[in-house]
Amino acid sequence: MWVGDSLEALSQIPTGSVQAIITSPPFALSTPKKYGNKGQDEYAAWFLPFAREAYRVIRDDGSLVLEVGGSWQRGRPIRSTYHLELLIALVSDIGFQLAQEFYGYNRAKIPGPAEWVNVRRERVKDAVTPIWWLSKTDHPKADNRRVLRPYGPDMRVLFEKGYNHGPRPSGHRVGNGFGADRGGAIPSNLLAIAHTRSRGDTYATYCRSMGLPIHPARFPREIPEFFIRFLTEPGDLILDPFAGSNITGASAEELGRKWIAIEIREEYARGSRGRFLSAIDG
Question: What are the structural domains, with CATH classification, of the chain?
């Protein structure tokens, strides 16, 4: 865990040494947060220096996974396009390829902004967070067999009864191998987020016991776990330059990967130690 400015820290990491950067930088929200976040108009220009260093340290077959949530324009029921502008800049200015877009889905997300969703009823609840998977080449290291999901009951029935192969009205043709049991279902790019943190969470318990602040915008564990499994193998190096409570580092540790986490605020870095405790005593 590296306490300090990410740009300075990134400059000291060897070129081509990182298999995947998996991070959730501060979003450009309409309301400033205690942990610090840039405005929508300046966000892309602020982030691009980090992106250049990220491009340098990532291996040729490596990936950059960037959770960067959308936002509303201040005082208006209109969405900002800052995260889309950043994506375009990462491709056109830095040279990344957009391997695939993902979305974290949190059905329990609190409705907001209250003015437009709860009071005037002009908008619906925003329950997804964009996640950009970027790469340096067309074929970064990735294997969806490492993130297969359990088959549902309907698919199990198809295995038993057999699948109706052949052409479909859409023009697609389903081959004979489609109905074979391959150990699990290929996941979609919509990642469900549980958000069922219990009171026994070691991170929160540790922070309270040590008098340290709990990070208010913690990276959902499901996101780094999924991409660590999907894009890396045991022993690979994972980097998070905006670590916060360091859920990326903790997930990498559990999955047998090496990791570097960078956090500018020391109190959050100290609190992240709670991620690595299996039990709290006193």
Answer: 2-149+186-276 (3.40.50.150), 151-185 (no CATH)
